[in-house]
Every structure is written in C-alpha cells, then in structure tokens.
Structure prediction request, 395 residues.
Amino acid sequence: MSCKKVYLNTKKEESLKRFHPWVFSGAIHHIDGTPEEGEIVEIYDSKKNFLAVGHCQIGSIAIRILSFEDETIDKPFWKKRFEVAYELRKQLRLAENPHNNTYRLVHGEGDLLPGLIVDIYGNTAVMQAHSPGMHLSRNELAEALKETLGDAIENVYYKSEDTLPYKADLGAENSYLIGGETASSLAIENDLKFHVDWVKGQKTGFFVDQRDNRSLLERYSKGKSVLNMFGYTGGFSCYAMRGGARLVHSVDSSAKAIALTNENIALNFPDDTRHQSFADDAFKYLEQMGDQYDLIILDPPAFAKHRNVLRNALQGYRKLNAVAFEKIKPGGIIFTFSCSQVVTKNDFRLAVFSAAAQSGRKVKILQQLTQPADHPINIYHPEGEYLKGLILSVE
Prediction:
C-alpha cells in the first residue's frame, strides 16, 4: 500500500537533515490526499526529494519520524528496533540479570521509536503509546515484542488511556494484549523487591528512571534521618533503609501510594521500626515539620507538562526547595529533581539557586543527576533529556 506524501515548505527540511524526529505543522506546505490520524506518511522536501517516513497526527507535532530511509513499516521493522533496544539493555546488565528484572526497554525517540514506551517488570512488558500511530500498531507491536524477548516475557499489558492525545478521540482501553494469567506484580531492582501496580498505578506502575539515583541515595543514607517527599511506592525509602538510615519517613498525598509504600517496606524490611509513612500534602508537611531531617528527597510529579505553565512550575520548584533549605539540619543533604521535559537544566538550576539565596544557607552542588542509560537521549533530540537532579550539601 502506497503512503500519502507530505511536502515541506522551502528550507523546512533542515531539521530532518539533522535527524530530528519531529515535523511541526508549520513546516508543511501541502499533503497529497488526507491521511487519517496515525497513518504512515512519506515526507519530501520542496524539491520532491525523499526525506523520511513517519506517523502523522493532529497537533503542533504533525509527524513523528520512524525512519530516515525509504522502508516499509511492518512487524519485521518493529522487531528489528526491539532487538537493538534489547541488546543494549543486555549490555547495560539490566536485562537477563538475576539481581534486576525491572528496566525500560523502549524509550521513545531515544530508541528511534517515537511515541512508544515499554517497561519490563519480571515476565510482563507494560506498553504505553503517546501517539495515535503507535496506538493503531499496538497488536503488531505486542507480537514483535513477544517474538523478540521470547520466554523472557509472558504478558504484554497495554496502558494508554491517559497518554494519547485527547483530540485523537481513539477510545483506547487499558488491557492485556498478550497473556495476563501469569502476570506477577513483584519487581526486583538491585535485589530490592517492589510490588508494582501497572493497572491502577501512575505511569507504567513504577518510576524506573530513578534506579541509579536511588542507588546513589543509598550511599548517602547511613546514620541519617531521611525524609522522602512525594514518595509514591517508596523506592527511595527502601534504598535509604538498606543504606543504614537511622529513620525514614515517606510522605505522599495519595493514601493508595502510602499503602503500597508500606507493603514494599514490609516486603524488604519486615518488622523494621525505622520507617513511618504519612498521607499528607507535601507543602503542608514541609511547612509544619521541624528540623529533624538531615537528608531530604524532593521528587515531585511534573509541575509543567506544557510550556504555557512553565512560569508557575518554576515558582513551585523555588517554593518547594526553599522550605527544604530552611528546615534541613546543618550539614544536611538534599536530593532534588524535576521530571518536567519543558523545564531545562538551566531553568531548574536557577529555581534551586533562587531558593538557596532566599534561605540564606550555604549550599554546594555535590553531583548533577539525570536519567539512566535505559532512558537514552537521542543526540539529535535534546528534548528527550527530561530528568534533572542535584545532590546538594547545606551548611
């Protein structure tokens, strides 16, 4: 079946020649025919030279590039991309590792599969589409995924009800595309065990992007009184416990998240009295707490998902960090993060700098943090660097 052809305005092909994986709507001169939402199209420059092939969609990002070669997008294509991604995770010693069965297999543009996320939890792959094209290909993707990983996975759960563009009106439903009967909710990360709820939980059920940063926290935790804000399922709390923290408090506004945190603490540290959890608003808790903590983790949800709320987001980061600077013990350590893609590293550092200046405390940057290697950043797509973090020493 021949693809519909998209022709760009003069000189609008330059970003594609630099292998950027998006075509914006303003770059398009005209389209031969009327492609349906998520349909595969071919892209040409103004002189009718082939540039790429990709999924079209409504919105400012009009096309997500799948290949800069003139090739067919079918199950063998998906399987080839999955094989490359899987081989990388094996090289990283994340896949086929008895101490770790939890990792990201596909990270959108970073794995040359824009609009697709796949996280692995034991024998289950949780697949999430962020574009109509990937949604329409979901069954073929699931089959290619199973063929690639073989016996390593038995189930593929599709979770895209809340991630697809609402304008597309695709009526997506979360469900198992393959299996479901053998799905175990128990995930292992660096020998720690976690219950993962991919059916009702946030994202794909667990924040695998903080694995390396949780390991770093473990090294800082010995003898410390630790506060884990926005704790979700207690990942940082478990690492702090194993690192020898004197006490660990987990705070999240969601009672369900706190219940899961308590389950995960009990799973790894049964009858250990060092941990306590609180279902409370983060800002309220921070304002009312004393100065009992000498290690604080600030890992809030994305304050800004769109650029039009960036200013409010930066104010939120300033306020959050300012209270932590004010309350933490002298000599304390703060792990602070932003997972908002529209907040740049410089934006985030400036917000934290402003908070430090407001507090009047002496603050040093010990380490700058980012996402782990199974969340690769396509060098031609710097927008993929979404996770920013700092480890700070506060005198």
Notes: Residues 4 and 225 are 61 Å apart (CA to CA). The chain has a mean pLDDT of 93.
